[in-house]
Write a structure and sequence with these properties.
The longest helix is centred in the middle third of the chain and has 13 residues, at about 220-235. This protein has helices at about 5-10, 15-25, 30-40, 175-180, 220-235, 250-255, 270-285, 295-300, 375-380, 390-395, 400-410; strands at about 45, 55, 60, 80, 85, 90-95, 110-115, 120-125, 140-145, 155-160, 200, 205-210, 310-315, 320, 330, 350. The protein is globular, with a radius of gyration of 21 Å. The chain has a domain at about 170-215 and about 285-410. By secondary structure, the protein is of the alpha+beta class. The strands form seven sheets. It has a four-stranded antiparallel beta sheet with strand order 4-5-8-9, with no helix packed on it.
């Protein structure tokens, strides 16, 4: 479908802005401009007179995509002198037995509610002093004022940081067969690094490689965007058409609330065309070229590149800048988290892409899945399990070499 046709079907930006967009819709790069506008849009509750942007929540974590991903980057998290961590983009994930939702609170705690709807809980996150035996501090997440009763005692609770989206769109071009070929779940080569591909059921019933998300739970960028709209903002999409988002049957007021009508133009609050435009914006967030020099050589020599593969083979030839192998690896008990996905162990994480790591302000950047690491060095030192040997080599580097390696990663 042409850009003009998409604009005609999804004219939800309104007024003069829409007129300008129609005049310039023939410009291919303008898809990214429209996508950015949608990414930055502040949504309002269902039944609002602002029909172009209604349908939020009613339970939600943010009012816009950019609220958790400033400029498409990772969550901006501030830690004050008392150790309290604040900032949009820190959320609490939930997982019942087998990775399913909590029967009352669903997949995630929504810390905001529209008027008349109590937020599910209030989140307080604190950086704890470093405990004996730990390579760095941890973050403790405390939930107070639970609005809908207790969380099921069998539900696992885990903190998540919104990751950077810079360079992520390119991962769609990675050759799935080449990724799967890198997997070594039985450690046949004896290097201690196993890694396994997470295969999910596609729309046609055929197994598809998981590429996106902390535990590789998303098969496509579009599906990942749709998941965020549903769980974080409570907006329906063709992928997830329930307008109540993450609200469960135990929250009848949420499910019965007014939802957005998309100007009566579509069955869902977010259309496929809108997701396509957001994908175009995310594709414009290209990773910077990897630096050369001593740091790159040390990155390979320590074994970091065994999992954080600098480039993956692309479909049709060429490579994709990645610094990930897109595989699940067990990183040891220190990084284990009970909010698991189906079929994924608590210590297993998809290798985090390091492309775009330098995006954002240094004062608010934190690392690892829960933001516990205040520096790249802390994040490296937390690595254990399959990454224990690489972390040990890092510890053994001379001070100058360690600094060179960290500077290299810092500039990705």
């Amino acid at each position: 479908m042409s850009t003009m046709a998409r604009i005609g079907r999804t004219a939800r930006l309104g007024g003069a802005a829409a007129a300008v967009m129609l005049l310039t819709a023939a410009m291919p790069a303008f898809d990214a401009v429209l996508g950015r506008a949608l990414f930055e849009r502040v949504w309002v509750g269902g039944g609002s007179s602002t029909k172009a942007a209604d349908g939020l929540g009613p339970l939600h974590n943010a009012r816009s995509c950019v609220g958790c991903h400033p400029r498409g980057g990772a969550a901006a998290i501030l830690v004050d002198a008392a150790g309290d961590a604040t900032g949009a983009g820190l959320v609490v994930r939930l997982a019942g037995p087998g990775g399913g939702p909590d029967p009352v609170y669903g997949h995630q705690i929504q810390t905001r509610g529209l008027p008349g709807h109590a937020a599910e809980a209030r989140l307080a996150s604190t950086v704890l002093p470093m405990a004996e035996g730990d390579p760095g501090p941890r973050i403790a997440a405390t939930l107070a004022d639970l609005g809908y009763g207790p969380i099921d005692p069998e539900t696992g609770v885990g903190l998540r940081r919104a990751p950077s989206l810079v360079g992520r769109a390119a991962l769609a071009s990675a050759d799935a067969a080449a990724v799967i070929a890198r997997a070594d779940p039985d450690d046949a080569d004896g290097d201690g690094v196993r890694g396994r591909a997470r295969m999910l059921v596609g729309p046609d019933g055929v197994p598809v490689l998981g590429r996106y998300g902390w535990r590789a739970g998303g098969t496509t960028l579009a599906a990942q965007v749709a998941s965020a709209f549903s769980i974080d903002l409570g907006l329906s999409t063709p992928f997830r058409p329930d307008p109540a988002g993450d609200c469960t049957p135990a929250q009848p007021a949420c499910r019965a609330a007014l939802h957005g009508d998309n100007d009566s133009a579509a069955a869902t609050e977010i259309t496929t065309d809108m997701i396509v435009l957001i994908e175009a914006y995310l594709a414009s967030l290209e990773a910077r070229p990897a630096p050369d020099g001593q740091g790159a050589a040390l990155f390979a020599a320590t074994g970091c590149a065994a999992c954080h593969v600098p480039a993956l083979a692309a479909v049709g030839g060429g490579t994709v800048p990645a610094f990930t192998d897109l595989l699940l690896h067990d990183l040891g008990p220190g990084l284990a988290d009970p909010a698991v996905d189906p079929g994924v162990a608590p210590g297993e994480w998809r290798t985090a892409p390091l492309v775009g790591l330098s995006a954002g302000k240094a004062v608010t950047r934190r690392f690892l899945h829960d933001g516990r690491a205040g520096s790249i060095e802390e994040a490296v030192l937390w690595h254990d399990g399959e990454a224990a040997a690489a972390a040990s080599r890092f510890r053994g580097l001379a001070a100058d070499d360690r600094r060179a390696l960290l500077d290299y990663v810092e500039r990705l």
